[in-house]
Amino acid sequence: MSNFPESVPQEVINKHMYIKANFVSANRGVIFINFALISGQKYRFEAALDPIYKKIPPMKKIILLGMIMTSSLALLAQDESTVHFGLKAAPSFAWLKTDSKDYTANGSKFGFSYGLMTEFNFTKRYAFATGIDVAYRGGKLKSIFNSPNINGGDSVFTSEQAMILQYVEIPLTLKLKTNEIGYLTYFLQVGVSPGVNIRAKADSKTTLQANGVTTSASEDGIDIKDDINSFNLSMIIGGGVEYTLSGSTTLLVGVQFNNGFMDVADGDNLKANSNYLALTVGILF
User: pLDDT by residue (tens digit) across 164-196?
Assistant: First the structure.
């Protein structure tokens, strides 16, 4: 990583730096981060990535850029009123929405997500909110197939699957806040969240009805990672309230809806989107 330009006064770098505006772009394996100093002069900071960057799939590049942007802003922002860090946990109900003719949604799964939060306030009432989340998605699906049997009549196969999908996600959101009312500040949050699948399991139950006889078999913990797309992109919309505990420390409680844009299944037989509704509880410092 290169040094700052010689024209940047050292005392400004050490004491007076703050983020006024920034953007990240990738070209030929180099990331450029533009930032402004209190002096009003603009400088460009270049970080050359390892050549392996060029071999990274496009969706992973997006996540990598998000992580670099977050880390860079955290290092550059020294004004305690500009940047806040925190932790959160979010119990949730997750379900799968499918338009496939052979499958129907068959219920939700209880999940639990957790992660780190980072907020960059560019005005008193507006902030860029990001972080790193470990999110549990999934849901239940059901399929029914009829097949004629040799004794006449039909055999009915019923297959039920409860899928548990785990992702590492980087939410990229805009947070709109009200003025503080007493100790309370209300907020609305919207944005997107790219994610990478790190684990996929399923509990399966199959039932056969034929000639008046019903038989069933089940298996838990089936590894289905090869049948799940590696990447996911979802829309985030939510709201909540912050309670000031002391100074810049706040307790956060909110509700968030996460709507998947992409098909989570990697195959032609099943098309499904992942959604969840979460109650988020966290603390910001």
Answer: 999 999 999 999 999 999 999 999 999 999 999
Q: What are phi and psi of 59, to 5 degrees?
A: -65, -35
How many domains are there within the chain? Answer: 2
Q: Based on the fold, state whether residues 63 and 139 are members of the same structural domain.
A: no
Q: Which of 49, 64, 79 is the last residue of a domain?
A: 79
Q: Are residue 70 and residue 165 in the same domain, yes or no? A: no
Exposed / middle / buried, residue 239 (Cβ in 10 Å: 0-12, 13-18, 19+): middle
pTM, two decimals, is 0.72
Whole-number pLDDT of residue 43: 39
Query: Of 59, 79, 99, which residue sits at a domain end?
Result: 79
The per-residue pLDDT for range 41-95, each reduced to its tens digit, is 443 433 444 444 455 565 555 555 656 555 555 554 444 468 999 999 999 999 9
For residue 29, what pLDDT is reported?
40
Say whether both 201 and 137 belong to one domain.
Answer: yes
Residues 58 and 75 in one domain: yes
Q: Is the separation of the CB atoms in 25 and 13 below 8 Å?
A: no
Supply the range of the domain harboring residue 59.
1-79
Contacts with 261 (C-beta within 8 Å, 6 or more apart), sequence order: 233, 234, 235, 273
Residues 135 and 219 in one domain: yes
